[in-house]
Amino acid sequence: MKEMNDKLNGKIKNSFGQMNKKAPDLLWNGLSASLDENSPVDAAPEPADPYLYKKIRESYSSQHRIAPSHVWQSINKQLNIDLVWTRVSKELDGAGGISRHRWQWTAVAATFLFMVGLAGAYFLSLEDSLILSGSNSGAPIQLTETLADGNLPNGSDVDKNNENTLDITEKQRLPQLGNGSESMSEHQENQQQEEISFHEDKDASKVSSKSAFGVPENIIVHKASTLPSTDNSLASLGSISKSIPSDFLETRTVVPDPLNKGIYAAFDSLGFRPMAEVQNNAAEEYEKKKVLLSRFNLGLALSYHNSWLLNNETQRSFDRGSLISTSPTFKESIGLTLGYHFSSKSMISTEVHLAKSGQEYKTFGDGSYIRKGLELTYYKAYVQYQYNLLQNRKSLLSDITIKAGLFGGFLYDKQGELRETQSRYSQYDYGVRGALGQEKRIGGLTVGYGMSVERGLRNIFLGSENMPARFNETYTLNIGPYLNLRYNL
Questions:
Q1: Helix or strand or coil: residue 187?
Q2: What is the pLDDT of residues 68-99, one digit of tens each?
Q3: Which of 19, 132, 255, 424 has the least CB density, counted as fewest CB within 10 Å?
Q4: Backbone angles phi, psi at 391, to 5 degrees
Q5: Residue 112 located in a structural domain
Q6: What is the H or E stretch that residue 470 is in?
Q7: Is the pTM of this model over 0.90?
Q8: Does residue 74 fall inside a structural domain?
Q9: What are 165-197's pLDDT values in tens digits?
Q10: Alpha-carbon distance values, 158 to 83, 155, 205, 276 (Å)
Q11: Residue that is last in its domain, among 229, 259, 287
C-alpha cells in the first residue's frame, strides 16, 4: 500500500512539476474521493497508469472553470477587435453622429447666423437711404433757402426755378469766362468750359458727364459768380488763395427729387450738407487730403481661446447624473500675420501661430474626484478673407470686419492623458475659422480686435489599447477674443 501511494505521489508531482504550480485543493479532494471509491490496490499493477490519468481528468472536469486573470487580459484585447465592436456599433451610433455634438453645432450655427444677420442688416439699411439718380429724379432744381428751411417747392415752382437757373447760368457763363481769360491760357480756358458745360434739355434733367467727373448726374456744377444771390451762396472763401479768380471757383448744387420724402435723410447719409454749412466749412473741405491705403501690412496676432475637445467624455459631462465634469479651459495662441488689400473693403491675410488646444476633466472614482487634462500644441497656418463694413463713420459700430477662412495644424507636443491607457493622436489637423470684429487706424498702425471661432474637421484621436479610433471621435473647438497689431507697409 505504501508503495502504491508513493507511486501515486510521484505521478502527481511529475504532472504538475512541469508547470511549477501547486494543484488546487479541490483537485486533491476530488482525487481522494475517487480513489476511495475504487481503490487502486484492486487493480493490476501494470494498467494502473491509464486508470490514474482517467481519475485525474474526471477531477478537473468536476471543478468550476474559472480562467486566470492573465487569460482575461488576453480575452479583453481580442474583444476589442473591429469584428466584435461592429456587433455593438448600432447601440453606440444611436447616441453618436450629429446628435452627439448637438449643442456644439447649435453654437456654431448661432454664430454664423449672427454674422450673416449683421451683414444683412447693413445692406438692408441702404434701402432706407435715398440713392440719388438722374434717371429716377424729376426735373433738376437748385437748392435755395426754401429747401434749406425744410419747405419743398411744388411742381410748378420747380419748373420755373429750374428754367430761370439754366437761363441765368448760360447767359452769365460766357461773360465771366471772358473776364477771367486774361490770366489763363487758351487751353485752360477750353478745359474749364468743358468742365462746367451741361446739356440743355427741355426738362433740363440731364447733366453732361464732363461737368463734374465722378459726381452723380443730379449734382450740377456752377460758377460761384453765376449763382443766384441767396443767403446760402458762397459769398467769400477767405482761406483760398487770392491768386485764383473767384469766377473759376466751382460749387456743387445738389439736384434732389422734390417728391421724395426721405430727401434730408438721404442727404445726411450721403454726406451732403446745406449750403450754409458748406460756406462755414469751405476751407476745411478744400484742405482735406486723400488717404492712401497701403497694399501690404505685417504684424502680430494674439488670441486667448476657450478650448474644447469634442469627444465622448465631453458629451457625457453634460448628461444628468454623470460622474464626469468639464470646466472651461483657456489656451493662448500667438503668431505673425501678413495681409494684402485688394481694395479698401476687402483683404486676404495669412497667419502662422503657435497655438494650444486641450480640455480638463474631473472624474469620480474611489470616493473622490480625479483631475485629468490634455494639452495639444500645434503649429498652425491660416488663410482667410476679410471684408470691411460701415467704413469712415463716426459711430461706435463703424469699421466692422468679417473674416472667413481655413487652417491647418501640425502637432508639436502632447502633455497629459485622459484615460488609464495611452492614447494616440494625429499629427495633423485642419478646419475652418470665422471672426467678427473691428479695425481702427492709428497713424501707420491698424488695430484689429473681435471674436473668432475655429472648428477642426479631422478626427485627431487614433485610438488606444482598449478603444478603436472611430468609437471616440475627437475634434477641436476654440472660441475667444483676438487682437491684431499690423503695420501698414
A1: helix
A2: 666 677 766 666 665 555 655 555 555 454 55
A3: 19
A4: -85, 160
A5: yes
A6: none
A7: no
A8: no
A9: 445 455 444 444 444 444 444 555 555 554 444
A10: 88, 5, 12, 21
A11: 287
CATH number reported for the structural domain that contains residue 305 in this entry:
2.40.160.20
Distance CA 380, CA 407 (A): 7
Same domain, 224 and 282: yes
Dist CA 270 CA 263 (whole Å): 10
The confidence score (pLDDT) of residue 116 equals 76
Cell of 239: 482761406
Asked whether residue 325 falls in the same domain as residue 468, the answer is yes
State percent of the chain over pLDDT 90: 23
Structure-block grid coordinates of residue 72: 482575461
Is there a single domain that holds both residue 264 and residue 240? yes
Write out the residue range of the structural domain in which residue 281 sits.
145-287
Q: Is residue 398 classed exposed, middle or buried when 0-12, 13-18 and 19+ CB atoms within 10 A define those classes? A: middle
pLDDT of residue 156: 45
Q: pLDDT tens for residues 299-343?
A: 999 999 999 999 988 888 888 878 888 888 999 999 999 999 998
How many domains does the chain divide into? 3
Q: Are residues 274 and 297 in the same domain?
A: no
409 in any annotated domain: yes
Q: How far apart are CA 33 and CA 38, in angstroms?
A: 9
